[in-house]
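User: My instructor asked us to take a sequence, write out its structure as tokens, and then describe one feature of it. I'm not sure where to start. Here is the sequence I was given:
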Amino acid sequence: MRIARFSIDGTVGFGVVEEEPAADGGLQLDIIKGHPFADFERSGRRVPVSQVRLLPPVLPSKIVAIGRNYAEHARELGNAVPDVPVTFFKPSTSVIGPGDEIAYPSISSDVHHEAELAVVIGRLCRDVPRERARDVILGYTCANDLTARDVQQRETQWARAKGFDTSCPLGPWIETDLDPADLAVSCTVNGEQRQLGRTSEMVRAVEDLIVHITESMTLLPQDVILTGTPAGVGPVHVGDEVAVTIEGIGTLTNKVVKRD
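Assistant: Let's start with the prediction itself. The structure tokens for your sequence are:
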């Protein structure tokens, strides 16, 4: 099931993306009653996706991101694969949705794209055993962990390099029925392929990341885990269109603009 968050006529809601096309030939949403983090019903009221604005699929209290979880990506930046996961946060203010603009930060002149599989948490959890890890997941979406590489290299902490406004595009929706073990992850810039990898190349699987994170902190519904990026990261510039595609989910597209 694909669940999208959207706005129409000033109202924000969730809807199930239907396989049956709308009258215009595009996708349509069946608006749900309530929200997807509890039992819900479909309303039967359908609206074409073309008539709504797709929003970030969730509003997380925190984004927990994992660095250097693909060996080739670690090596391309001159780093070793860490003995334990490198964990950092991106703030909620970094989140934007499909079609939203990435504002190039004034603190950097070397912003890079990083295509990633994002895990959306569906229930409050802590100290999750590995065999129960899938139980706390609502689904998966596409993410772009935009990084001010020059800032990352000159500052010990990654908070500014990874957490600037608009640095975490998410979307276009949540796919709930998906096995994350071996999915293609790619990124294009202006239609040119930059990244192409598979989640099977991750050093640590989704289940292991959930165990590691929840050993130290509680995850809440709508929280997001970024699972790392494959090799091929590189710069983006004002005017570029960046697209992250993940097999079984879809494509997240955003344009880079100059920050006001």
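For the description part of your assignment, you could build on this observation: The longest helix spans residues 206-214. Try explaining in your own words what that tells you about the chain.
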